[in-house]
Amino acid sequence: MSQNPVPCPAELDRTNVTRAEAAARSALLTVHSYEVDVDVRGATDPARTGYPVTTTVRFDCAQPGASTHLDYIAESVDAVELNGRALDVAAVAGDARIRLDDLEASNTVVVRGTSAYSRSGEGMHRFVDPADGQTYLYTQYEPADARRVFPTFEQPDLKGHFVFALSGPADWVLASNRPESAREDLGEGHVRVRFEPTLPQSTYITTLLAGPYTQWEDRWGGHAASGADAVDLRLFTRATMAEHFDPERVFAVTKAGLDHFHDLFGVPYEWGKYDQAFVPEYNLGAMENPGLVTFTEDFVFTSRATAVQYEGRANVILHEMAHMWFGDLVTMSWWDDLWLKESFADYMGSLGVDEATEFSSSWVTFASRRKAWAYVQDQLPTTHPIVADIVDLEAARQNFDGITYAKGASVLKQLAAFVGREAFLDAARRYFQRHAWGNAALADFMAALAEASGRDMDAWAQAWLHTAGVPRLSVEVGAPSQDGQPATPELVHEGTDPVTGEQVLRPHVLKVGVFEPSATGALVRTGQTAVEVPAGQARTPLTELEVPAAGVRLVLPNDEDLTYAKLALDDASLDAVLTHPVADPLAQATVWAALWSMVRDGELSVRAFIQAVGRLGASLREPGVYQMVMTQAVSAIGLYAHVEDRVQLRTELAAMLAGHLEQLEPGGDRQRAAARVLAQLGRDDADVARLAARVLVTDAENRAPQLQVDREIRWLVLQARASTGLADADELDAELERDRTAQTVLWHTVAVNSLPAESVARAAWQAVLSGADASGTALSNDLLSATAEGFGTADRAVKDALLPEFWPQLEHVWASRSNGLASRTILGLFPVHQDALDGGEDAQQAHPALAAAQGWLDEHPDAPGALRRVMIEQTDALRRALRVQSRQRSLEH
């Protein structure tokens, strides 16, 4: 086994747990406690691929004599003892399970094994800091990777009390969910730390942290009204990240969030402490382990950060904090109701930032970013209701998506408008009080809502939570009558569930606004009406809304962004927003989201979108909206523009961005965003790369005023220069040696794998496809993605020549790697960037890349469902790109 092992010989269906199995096991067992002893004293030795674990589980069985199993993906299972009887390991352990037969009414099972260190971010991840050689460990389990560290009943509704013990170097931070209760000296500079028993919790939110982390301490004073005691606060980062960290800001957000959520929920936080660790090579934004939340260390800003980044970090901190109630205190019974925690946390994160922090643009960011993710996900062939049908763990892994998070949060925002804020919060309090420390389902929350609001929540839930697809809202203004009386405008509601093909007209509580130019030319709100659209109603008269009969005006459905829907702007409104800025930040974000949807749907040409960006980009005052729109402009050119237009459109966009570097507030967030996007744009165009280098780093006289040229800006420009042949490997290596950190190693990996040589592209392709570098060392999750990112800039002809090797390897890649690494591999190599064929939309079906992707799907109906889902979504993205490209000429005329 290599020093970077892949746990288990293959990740096939035998590692799966089905919903039916989980339900049967839940009916059979009552879990009381786990005692888990983990020994990572050998973690600094690269030759040690695993670590010893001893686990004792105590549980009851409702049917003595029955059988069950523990879940354990181990390097080895060394001993199993059930109720004092030693079991034959060879007979009971295998296929990621340990079979337990002839159970008694009360049972104790002891398992001794060796668990594998991970490089994939799943289980116990081991990271060696390239800057100082120090070793860091952390765990990540959701949805079902606790079984990679210790034997478990791996399902959310079998909660138990956990007592962890962790052995390691005495000078390391050794931490878990609960405070430390005892420390034993093991000699030779090692200790064994034992932690207090947890409150009842699911396996997937247990956690361990070990390493020479730098730590900061503070304290939250408690909350008298809810009875919450004061708790200690700690923050952790790698030692080499400590100089960049801003603990005071993070502590301030944490305290404000704890105050706010106790005010809202009235239920005390009872996990004893509140630690937050920022860890390397993290697969997620963060994870809500009670008492010890883990975050990606991307939130430790090593370069100049914008308010958007600080707001985004605050949002994630409060998202995870909301989980202490939604998810940790009350947990879904099975992954069908994953939304019960993720949608709520996503909504509460934005609400908390808006109401409890210094940031005032939380809902603007939500409208611009989170909902954009939801709209894209909800238009894929794999779309599903918010309450999804999750038959097994493989399906659960794929459901941490834009529907479960962002659409669900958008629908909860609509729900709060539908029932009223106080009823919504009252329902949450009832829900917590009834189901604290247990598990619940959709019906439980809907019952609490019905009691709190007096409304029929079953019908609301059926319409919004059990159907799929994006509603479409528009306003028909109508022509004046013959005697000059204005027509009554109507709100038009359309909706089809793409899963069933049936019409779905959901209830909406929303506002419709009218905007007209002010003296400055900006569109300002001059009228607004509130509307409640009953379920099933396609047309709703807007009798209170006055729309000007002539002149420039915008009629905006979903003003204030209260509901979840795509917006279709009438012709006059479209003309207005393509030529006039919108003054209100939230209305502006809503308008630009509608324009982006039109580009993706092939209803607005890329040229018209880029021209609008050029005309109005400087009026996008919110930095988050500015950055999002500029990034969308780059994507529009790369994915949806006609191939013959891309150079010109890039040139136009680059000139605009260079102008913004001079015109926008010096040293400000929008200038920083313009610099980032300009460098990104330069990866595909040598002239743009030269421009980026000139105005960002190389010419002090011409450089953007007060732009901070730090490691991020230098590497973004280097990546652009490398991919276009303007920088070589020696220059990239020299920059890395000048400043070697975990982040610069990743940036260097992107750059060296983007050098425009066929040999470089082939080596990068092979590294990603095999999962190992040229020396045979397995790539970690982040290094694999960075290598794939570099490969993505390779010459199209070289990539096309390699594609035939891709399709036959897909099932092997999926079977031989963890879900996370396999997904990164496929997403990194899938040929989504292509040029449309001549001949219109119908001709695109014969496109070689699309035909090959669809052919693989047709020929592999029995491939693992999660693999097929990834392939279906990528194939649809390619089909959309080719279809929209083929429409560009007709849209421009």
UniProtKB/TrEMBL annotation:
<dbReference type="Pfam" id="PF17900">
    <property type="entry name" value="Peptidase_M1_N"/>
</dbReference>
<dbReference type="GO" id="GO:0008270">
    <property type="term" value="F:zinc ion binding"/>
</dbReference>
<dbReference type="InterPro" id="IPR050344">
    <property type="entry name" value="Peptidase_M1_aminopeptidases"/>
</dbReference>
<dbReference type="GO" id="GO:0005737">
    <property type="term" value="C:cytoplasm"/>
</dbReference>
<keyword id="KW-0378">Hydrolase</keyword>
<feature type="domain" description="Aminopeptidase N-like N-terminal">
    <location>
        <begin position="127"/>
        <end position="205"/>
    </location>
</feature>
<keyword id="KW-0479">Metal-binding</keyword>
<dbReference type="InterPro" id="IPR014782">
    <property type="entry name" value="Peptidase_M1_dom"/>
</dbReference>
<dbReference type="GO" id="GO:0042277">
    <property type="term" value="F:peptide binding"/>
</dbReference>
<protein>
    <recommendedName>
        <fullName>Aminopeptidase N</fullName>
        <ecNumber>3.4.11.2</ecNumber>
    </recommendedName>
</protein>
<dbReference type="GO" id="GO:0006508">
    <property type="term" value="P:proteolysis"/>
</dbReference>
<keyword id="KW-0862">Zinc</keyword>
<dbReference type="InterPro" id="IPR027268">
    <property type="entry name" value="Peptidase_M4/M1_CTD_sf"/>
</dbReference>
<dbReference type="InterPro" id="IPR024571">
    <property type="entry name" value="ERAP1-like_C_dom"/>
</dbReference>
<dbReference type="InterPro" id="IPR001930">
    <property type="entry name" value="Peptidase_M1"/>
</dbReference>
<keyword id="KW-0645">Protease</keyword>
<comment type="similarity">
    <text>Belongs to the peptidase M1 family.</text>
</comment>
<dbReference type="GO" id="GO:0070006">
    <property type="term" value="F:metalloaminopeptidase activity"/>
</dbReference>
<keyword id="KW-0031">Aminopeptidase</keyword>
<dbReference type="InterPro" id="IPR045357">
    <property type="entry name" value="Aminopeptidase_N-like_N"/>
</dbReference>
<dbReference type="GO" id="GO:0043171">
    <property type="term" value="P:peptide catabolic process"/>
</dbReference>
<dbReference type="InterPro" id="IPR012778">
    <property type="entry name" value="Pept_M1_aminopeptidase"/>
</dbReference>
<keyword id="KW-0482">Metalloprotease</keyword>
<feature type="domain" description="ERAP1-like C-terminal">
    <location>
        <begin position="554"/>
        <end position="879"/>
    </location>
</feature>
<feature type="domain" description="Peptidase M1 membrane alanine aminopeptidase">
    <location>
        <begin position="253"/>
        <end position="464"/>
    </location>
</feature>
<dbReference type="Pfam" id="PF01433">
    <property type="entry name" value="Peptidase_M1"/>
</dbReference>
<dbReference type="Pfam" id="PF11838">
    <property type="entry name" value="ERAP1_C"/>
</dbReference>
<dbReference type="GO" id="GO:0016020">
    <property type="term" value="C:membrane"/>
</dbReference>
<dbReference type="GO" id="GO:0005615">
    <property type="term" value="C:extracellular space"/>
</dbReference>
<dbReference type="GO" id="GO:0016285">
    <property type="term" value="F:alanyl aminopeptidase activity"/>
</dbReference>
<dbReference type="InterPro" id="IPR042097">
    <property type="entry name" value="Aminopeptidase_N-like_N_sf"/>
</dbReference>
